């Protein structure tokens, strides 16, 4: 497919996907609803050669992105890797934006996600390396509301300010992770600095907890400075296939209320 290229985009949004065209369409439409006034671009990166249905979804929405002057490109890894870390590294190398935001293909952003995080990043005289917002959990139609004996969280996640206590919680366990990949935005320069200082951006050896590993390494070995935004800007969908014992629950049921 062709691509529309934004001139000097402020933000590069990245969606890693693999043969989930219906979910991808929902994620893409949430990107179209963003209220960001600054120019930005979107890179959809497929894990392995993109299937026909994925290409159709992106191609069908391309005119709507072009009408809003949002750069849109579909790229793919040569081979299927089985996770999003390698595809995200590839997309980051193509990114032109000053900042990078990642969205899982099975989730979506609320309209103010990009504008809210951009404002938080560029607020004040000393800018952080990354900012993160809160999310709202929803259970998709037909999906179970429980996993084993656990009730899946619904509603808004709790607000966790960025401080030493939050850093300790982040480092303690992946099961205590309170930042999802769709919550945060980071400076592109910080990503490349992390690669120089630790030898990698996203760790391609991780098949689980890739976002958790990235943030822990970035904070403790890359010196990233964080900032929390007390706003719900990300919708996290429970749909059955993203629930397992090897995946963090992000929030305990008792933390469902804002």
Quick gist of this model?
The protein is α/β, with parallel strands linked by helices. Helix content is 30%, strand content 24%. It has one domain: Spore Coat Polysaccharide Biosynthesis Protein SpsA, Chain A (Alpha-Beta Complex).
Report on the structure:
- This protein has seven helices and eleven strands.
- Helix 1 packs parallel to helix 2.
- It starts with 10 loop residues before the first strand and ends in a 20-residue tail after the last strand.
- The strands form two sheets. Strands 1, 2, 3, 4, 5, 6, 9, 10 and 11 form a nine-stranded mixed β-sheet that branches. The chain has a two-stranded antiparallel ribbon with strand order 7-8.
- It has one domain: Alpha-Beta Complex (Spore Coat Polysaccharide Biosynthesis Protein SpsA, Chain A).
Structure keywords:
single chain, 258 residues, alpha/beta, Spore Coat Polysaccharide Biosynthesis Protein SpsA, Chain A, nine-stranded mixed sheet, two-stranded antiparallel ribbon, 24% strand
